[in-house]
Amino acid sequence: MSTSPAAPASPTERELNEFRSRFPILARRNYLNSCSLGALSHDAEARLDDFRELWHTMGASAWYEHWLGRLDELRAKAGAIHGAATEETAILPSTSAALSVVADAVPTAGRNRVVCSELDFPTLAYQWRVKPEIELVVVPSDDGIGVSLDRFEEAVDERTLFVATSHVCYSTGYVQDVAGIGEIARRAGAWSIIDGYQAAGQIAVDVEALGVDVYTSGPLKWLCGGPGLAWLFVRADRIAEMKPRFTSWFAARDQFDFRLDAFEFRDDARRFELGTPALPTVHTALGGIEALESFGLDRVQARIRALTARLVEGCREAGFSLRTHPDPERRSGIVMIAHDDPAEAVRRLDARDIVVDHRPGHVRVSPHAYNTEAEVDEVVAALAGMYT
């Protein structure tokens, strides 16, 4: 008889304080905006210092002795976090770049329909909105929080080339049934593309178990690695089918041959890479991952769930209207609190050293594992005080 894995042990006060001490902003401010930008850690700074020192002392020769190895290290780390093999992992400048490469690399087989949802970040839809040959179908949300599988099922047919949607909806925190979406696409002969930028680090991601064809992610948010990079994961048995028309010397089988008379793609996912990556972010991304690994990724995710539940309960007790799903299994660490003037609320909270964000009609709060229960309670009390 199978059993569910045991929940990770809660951190002791000492363990939590040690983890928090890695993130200097927490000594100055109540930082609850990790879904926009994860906090910078000493670990990331140390990696960046190493990069800077090698640049000072070795210059370009550091590429061969160190920096190419850092790229390999990051591909392996990112792949492991997402349940993908290193050979299925590519480093790109952004999710927009990753989607552009994929959109132009897949054989259309006479299909021209792309299915997104109205709750997706605009980047997903923009890739195809600008292509007049593509019929873009935007699936509606019935409740403004999530999109049912039935809606995807209705929209996907034999004309569909891609089902492209989010793992976690940026404006509601809703966790989609990605495995179910992938199955709908597969039955119709379509490709599934999942934007997981808001997922990685805060919920468990296993792209192999999810059964999707393409998954994008990156270090900017919950993985605390900073801006300037994205990861593209492509299922191993799909790679050979894809022939990118946006390419670079990093995608070449013999990268350092520098031939102009011929071009052959790499056999692995690096065929999708677009030139020299942002090495500073390569280093901070590695440091961000190390900071989270010091605490334990499973404990990071468990603590985000617990703090989110506390935040939701506190908001409801305060009488706030929330745009969040009632099922905790469909919630992530993004909590949308209705407000008549969210921009002003965020400004006033900032003046009190509480850092959150806003989206239309809502204050957006996103605790991370490095936050405390007291910090979650403080933002609720501060918002409540604005109404009295």
TrEMBL record:
Keyword line: Aminotransferase, Pyridoxal phosphate, Transferase
InterPro entries in alphabetical order: Aminotrans_V_dom, PyrdxlP-dep_Trfase, PyrdxlP-dep_Trfase_major, PyrdxlP-dep_Trfase_small
Native source organism of the sequence: Gaopeijia maritima
Record protein name field: Aminotransferase class V-fold PLP-dependent enzyme
One Pfam family per UniProt: Aminotran_5
SUPFAM superfamilies xref list: PLP-dependent transferases
Molecular function terms, GO-annotated: transaminase activity
Keyword presence, Transferase: yes
Domain (Aminotransferase class V) ranges: 71-377
